[in-house]
Amino acid sequence: MGGDLWITNSTALVTGRPEDPVKTGVELVIEGGVITYLGSRDRHFQERILHRLDQCEVLDASGCVIYPGLVNTHHHMYQVMTRNHPDVEGLGLFGWLERLFPMWTGVTEELAYYTSLLAMAELVQFGCTTTMDHHYVFPKGQLGCLDRQFEAAERIGIRFHGSRGSMSVGHSRGGLPQDDLVEDPDTVLAESERLIRTYHDPHPFSMRQVVLSPCAPTSVDAALFRETADLARRYGVRMHTHLAETMDEITYSREKFGRSPVEYMDDVGWLGPDVWFAHAVHLDGEDIRRLAEAGVGVAHCASSNMKLHSGICPVHRLYRAGVFVGLGVDGSASNDSSNLLAELRTAYLLQQLAEGPEALTAREMLALAGTGGARLLGREELGVLEVGKAGDCFLLNIDRAEYAGSGRDWAAMPATQGIHRPVDATVVAGKVIYRDGNWYNGFHEKEVIHQFHRLLGTR
Ligand SMILES: [Zn+2]
Questions:
Q1: Which 3 state secondary structure label does DSSP give 397?
Q2: Does residue 281 share a domain with residue 135?
Q3: For position 55, what pLDDT does the model report?
Q4: Mean pLDDT over residues 343-365, rounded?
Q5: How is the chain split among helix, strand and coil, in percent rounded to 5?
């Protein structure tokens, strides 16, 4: 159940719609987790709204700009365990994966829990209020990883789309993962169904949803892609996978399937408005047309694409063609952070370099991190500050040296200039879950870091 919160005294408010002016002198009222008033302290507010706010929690936003909560559309939180790993530096995706898969056989339910707590905490500290996670590593006996992730999300207070991944083609059958990380399809499908029945809440403003997400065409066979799609559509849950990430993958797809990754996805029933792909870096004009026509979305992960030498996603061409685009931090072994604000600025700068004057504007880039991501997750009620939308936002105190002179357009600032230290408050569903470095939901950052290092046996 959402909270009641009145955010007052703010310097400015950015709605998240690129065309909207920055608002000043606004009161933001959230009731039951939903925005019920956003406007000035006018007569209507004094006579009709103010009396309802007696019992309401008040958040004093003096000196702060209010931004819409951001939406992260691609991640692998378990990779916090192999973050900043020196043995994989300089490798492209396939070599990087082959080096990391043996390390990931050490994933346990307990590690899934602690890495998720840490990744989610970092996301919240940098303005993210909704995240998905693509978890596809289930070593024997560790089927409960997603259950622990949902537990972590509840403890942090973030909206969570947990995604049940899978791998069915190991090394011996021409796939990338080692054979002991491959699951049998019956287990994958039974577990996927159990997770949907246990956790998926399809209602607007829900705090948790389930996504089905075979890892990639380089580690999953066609039958499992098809069966996963059947199951997802039976329950009305969304579908996600990695696609067209590197030139190596394009070569693999042409050699093994005789077609491009997008054509292959069409064959297995994976082009539809309930699907979004991570990366989509290497696409031709026909691929883009197909994605737009089918209503497929794309999660752009700029830092990961740069680190793994993958290439540059044609964000501008996708966006102008009508493909829905969101931003994702990608896993913590290829980024290596869970900082969506940093990702927003990186994506902006990379597009400026790649596209020149045709690139998306800073305001449009902020919208990709908000409504763009919400659209991929099927959550039209998220990513924007308007009456009737979710009460998810973050506050940034702009009374600091690094923001002096930046006030000409607060909506452009996160992309052009960047926000480099944790935000001042993060609100999810009308509840203040993080403020001034403190957590309000039974989460003790230092204790969790200590537990994580104990489990991993390192510092
Ligand atoms: Zn990924």
A1: strand
A2: yes
A3: 87
A4: 97
A5: 40, 20, 40
- The rounded distance, in Å, linking the Cα atoms of 441 and 54 is 23
Whether residue 171 contacts residue 112, with contact meaning beta carbons closer than 8 Å, is answered with: no
| 183 and 171 in a common domain | yes
51 alpha carbon – ligand 1 mean position (Å)? 48
Whole-angstrom CA distances from 15 to 31, 39, 53, 255, 338 are 18, 12, 22, 47, 23
Rounded distance from Cα 317 to ligand 1 centre (Å): 22
CA of 305 to the centre of ligand 1 (A): 10
What is the overall mean pLDDT for the chain? 96
What CATH number is given to the structural domain containing 359?
3.20.20.140
Give the integer Cα–Cα distance in Å for 279 and 307.
13
CA 242 to ligand 1 center in whole angstroms:
6
Q: Read off the pLDDT band of 459 (50, 70, 90).
A: low
What residues have CB less than 8 Å from 447, skipping those under 6 apart?
Answer: none
Q: pLDDT digit string (tens) for 89-111?
A: 999 999 999 999 999 999 999 99
Band of residue 338 on the pLDDT scale cut at 50, 70, 90: very high
Q: How many domains does the chain have?
A: 2
Q: How far is the CA of 78 from the centre of ligand 1 (A)?
A: 11
Q: Confidence class of residue 174 from pLDDT cuts 50, 70 and 90?
A: confident
- Is the same domain home to 192 and 231? yes
Q: Are residues 261 and 152 in the same domain?
A: yes
Measured in Å, residue 243 CA sits from the centre of ligand 1 at 9
The residue-averaged pLDDT of 330-349 equals 96
Evaluate whether residue 445 is within a structural domain. Answer: no
Q: Tokens representing 265?
A: 């996805």
Among 345, 360, 376, residue at a domain's last position: 376
The arithmetic mean of pLDDT across residues 300-307, rounded, is 97
C-alpha 96 to ligand 1 mean position (Å): 12
Model confidence at 441, pLDDT cuts 50, 70, 90, reads: confident
Residue 408 scores a pLDDT above 80: yes
Closest Cα partner for 131 from 374, 302, 315, 423? 374
SS3 annotation, 167-211: CCCCHHHCCCCCHHHCCCHHHHHHHHHHHHHHHCCCCCCCCEEEE
Domain containing 356 equals 70-376
Task: Tell me: do 271 and 316 sit in the same domain.
Answer: yes
Overall residue count recorded for the chain in this entry: 459
CA of 201 to the centre of ligand 1 (A): 24
**Rounded CA gap, 28 and 391, in Å?**
9
Centre of ligand 1 to C-alpha 189, Å, is 21
- Asked whether residue 452 is domain-assigned, the answer is no
Q: What backbone torsions phi and psi does residue 408 show, to the nearest 5 degrees?
A: -65, -30
Query: Within a domain: residue 293?
Result: yes
253 and 397 both lie in a single domain: no
